[in-house]
């Protein structure tokens, strides 16, 4: 599994959060904000815990159930994601994004015909849902169907200006080994939210995977400037530097042998 797909950035265990220090009431809205923030920093484990807290306050929150399934998918826990999806669908059998998430789960488990059926149902329930189209694109890429590109582009069109949708589109591309096509949604994510470190970081990872070292260095540098609390960008820059030095040594050795 690629480093890009498995990104997780979390704080140290035991640290007191600003909310705890200020005595903020930890209610459903608090955990909703915490979950969304964690998700947008690719801390999927923390987001998973926060969505679970939301459900403790409100078991009828369909979006939180769906998000639980999506976070488990991000963590590559497909079997558990299927259990959660089935439990959630008992409560919300017509929830489009939940049906879409179940489709992705089934595709990852190799049950493509069932995955396509759930995806059809998801789009039928809400054809205006960007996630339903992203999920459909994910399923179709697994099935090696050419319409996958249309579905991903449809999601980006429906959510124009939403960097999170663009970022998720890129993650789907990369999961399927499509690094070059992932560049376009990542550039859109950077354009739509240039002040967030994560799109820059993942753009750099994608550029690095394609061998675009100069472009990757610029993206990693921007990510580091935007958020110095996370060490991922600094580590990536160090990795690029080490690789560059190694390449120079190999070139020198090849010239010497000639």
What would your notes on this structure say?
Helix content is 73%, strand content 0%. It has 14 helices and no strands. The chain has helices spanning 18-22, 28-39, 44-57, 62-74, 78-91, 96-108, 112-125, 130-142, 148-158, 163-175, 179-192, 197-209, 213-226, 232-257. Helix 4 packs parallel to helix 6 (96-108), helix 8 (130-142) runs parallel beside helix 10 (163-175) and helix 11 packs antiparallel against helix 12 (197-209). The longest helix is centred in the last third of the chain and has 26 residues, at 232-257.
Number of helices: 14
Main beta sheet: strand number and arrangement?
A: none
CA radius of gyration: 20 Å
Shape: globular
Q: What's the SSE blueprint?
A:
Blueprint: H1 18-22, H2 28-39, H3 44-57, H4 62-74, H5 78-91, H6 96-108, H7 112-125, H8 130-142, H9 148-158, H10 163-175, H11 179-192, H12 197-209, H13 213-226, H14 232-257
Give the tags.
mainly alpha, 73% helix, 14 helices, 0% strand, disordered N terminus, single chain, globular, disordered C terminus, 258 residues
